[in-house]
Please model this.
Amino acid sequence: MADILEHSALLVLQQHYKVPFFPIGPFHKMATATSTSFLEEDRSCIARLDKQASNSVLYISLGSIACVDEEEMTETAWGLANSGIPFLWVVRSDSVNEKQHWHFPEGFRALVGERGLIVKWAPQKEVLAHRAVGGFWSHCGWNSTFESICEGVPMICRPHFGDQLMNARYLTYVWKVGLNIENVLDRESMETTIRRLMLGIEGKEMRKRILDIKEKVEAGMLKGGSAYESLNDLTEFITSFLAG
Model:
């Protein structure tokens, strides 16, 4: 997958280090597992997604570690509510900094009604692969980024720390399959970003681009594809030491 997403950077590294490179993956597609989550997944959300139109639902998850402050959480809730877009929102019990429990703003649940589903944790790979999911609001961790690209789901980027910042820049400026939120403490900015991704021309263009990347990734895993051949090359490279 790296040879597709980071081809130019990979060439520079190969020229600089002069050692064998084996760009393989995505691993979660090459060696699938039932679940790799440390948190209990609420699979009831899949049945709810089954009832939604294709590409109509926004999935929101900031991963298992990232937290936000109370103000951002409240503005996020109103941004989602005011957007009019169906959503599946993962809200961990520790999603808000220094709080074990955060209460949704008054009137939020009544306004959202059946349009919004909130769970403590979701089977993310299955959610992203679902036909109803048309966007992913993410912290842009590398696993989440890979999983979203592999399922052809464009992203709203809300990075927090570490590699998430760089991943978000790649998503928005290099691969052009993601949108940044201009102001995470402003519900109108959030609402606008959601609607741009889910309903706007930008979102449609991003969906086309990310589906093209998805097809290239899938082709790379087939016999004769780049990832397939790189895995064979790695196997032969390792066994060559045993033979010697």
